[in-house]
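Quick one, tokens below. Sequence please?
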């Protein structure tokens, strides 16, 4: 389950709301050395926002389902693994943003990776504990492994290259399936973004210039590989049969597309660099080739 990917960045928007443009620029400029006041602000803000998010999540998401004693559930076959891709994405992006906030406060690289990058894994593991106490779900080791993979993707790139050359991204489009089962797949756009796996696509966006520094490619030019799936009204085929749902063919989708690494766009503005960092979580619409399971190849002029 992926929720609240932008938590570590929220306090920047809240705190800078009443600042003038020049003060915002000064505030958002990363420090070259440790500023205790900034570090404390990051730690306290994340603690408060995370606590509020977990309490709100418990009330808004889990309150509608029956509680149970803590139990495990093997859901690795569910939703053609789109939910696992979501865990990788969420753990990576939460950890990346938290590490960047610590970098902004001047914390050492070691502590950025140790305490910042691990934030996504810790937060999502806490959510997994909630799942373990819900009769509807259960604690999933597959989810935990996906969380760990997302964290490892960020940390390993920092250790190998001191930069992020391959970035997980997300895109979404509405589908016909949500209308047929809104209680599970979402009754409105906001719910469908989270619940309708048929419309979700997860990407690995690679910056080619980072791998070919002597090339004349633009620094921001990326190529992205994506994964999605359709035909799902329930977690598995067997559960669809048990619920007497329409018998749609489930199939996987693989994509190759162009993309932009917003963080590689040169700008002197700290405000713009912050916005670019936040929105670099989303894959831009672009020409895309789609390869479907036994359905051939389809070209989209603009796919999202």
């Amino acid at each position: 389950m992926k929720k609240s990917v932008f938590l570590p960045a929220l306090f920047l928007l809240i705190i800078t709301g009443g600042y003038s443009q020049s003060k915002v620029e000064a505030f958002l400029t990363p420090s070259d050395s440790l500023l205790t006041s900034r570090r404390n602000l990051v730690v306290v803000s994340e603690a408060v926002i995370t606590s509020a998010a977990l309490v709100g999540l418990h009330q808004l998401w889990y309150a509608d389902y029956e509680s149970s004693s803590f139990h495990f559930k093997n859901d690795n076959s569910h939703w053609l693994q789109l939910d696992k891709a979501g865990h990788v994405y969420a753990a990576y992006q939460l950890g990346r943003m938290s590490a960047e906030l610590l970098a902004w406060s001047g914390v050492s690289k070691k502590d950025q990776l140790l305490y910042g990058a691990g934030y996504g894994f810790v937060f999502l593991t806490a959510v997994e504990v909630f799942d373990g106490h819900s009769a509807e779900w259960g604690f999933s080791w597959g989810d935990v492994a996906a969380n760990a993979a997302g964290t490892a993707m960020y940390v390993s790139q920092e250790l190998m290259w001191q930069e992020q050359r391959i970035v997980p991204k997300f895109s979404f489009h509405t589908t016909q399936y949500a209308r047929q089962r809104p209680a599970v797949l979402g009754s409105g756009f906001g719910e469908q973004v989270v619940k309708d796996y048929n419309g979700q696509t997860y990407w690995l966006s690679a910056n080619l210039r980072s791998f070919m520094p002597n090339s004349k490619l633009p620094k921001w030019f990326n190529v992205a590989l994506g994964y999605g799936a359709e035909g799902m009204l329930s977690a598995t085929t067997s559960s669809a049969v048990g619920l007497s749902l329409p018998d749609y063919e489930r199939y996987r989708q693989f994509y190759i597309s162009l993309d932009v690494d917003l963080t590689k766009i040169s700008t002197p503005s700290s405000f713009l660099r912050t916005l670019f960092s936040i929105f670099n979580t989303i894959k831009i619409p672009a020409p895309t080739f789609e390869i479907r399971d036994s359905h051939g190849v389809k070209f989209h002029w603009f796919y999202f």
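The CA atoms of residues 2 and 194 lie 7 Å apart. Strands lie at 166-172, 200-207, 221-230, 251-260, 286-292, 296-303.
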